Amino acid sequence: MAVKSVSIRIEEEMLKKLAYIADYEGRSINSHILVLVRNAIKDFESENGSIDGDIRPDKNVKPSGR
Q1: What pLDDT band is residue 40 in, cutting at 50, 70 and 90?
Q2: What is the CA radius of gyration of the chain?
Q3: Which candidate, 58, 54, 21, places its Cα nearest to that of 37?
Q4: What is the pTM for the complete model shown?
Q5: Could you give the C-alpha distances from 57 to 17, 24, 36, 45, 49, in angstroms and in order?
Q6: Average per-residue pLDDT in the chain?
Q7: For a tag on the chain, would you pick the N or C end, based on fewer CB atoms within 10 A?
Q8: CB count in 10 Å sphere of residue 6
Q9: What are phi and psi of 10, to 5 degrees?
Q10: Residue 1 and residue 13: Cα distance in Å, rounded?
Q11: Within 10 Å of residue 45's Cβ, how many Cβ atoms?
Q12: Distance between CA atoms of residues 29 and 37, nearest Å
């Protein structure tokens, strides 16, 4: 499985709030964003059917290290 990087633009206040939530949950910002993405995919697929692909959003799998 290839791991890709994504860069986003985010307002400083929003980033601070996201960091607060991630820290509260015991995660890094990156890990917390992955949880949010997985949940969005899982919710979408539960309403609209599966999207083709091998990765299952119900599995909390960390990308392998380089």
Answers
A1: very high
A2: 14
A3: 58
A4: 0.78
A5: 24, 22, 10, 9, 13
A6: 87
A7: C
A8: 6
A9: -145, 140
A10: 34
A11: 14
A12: 12
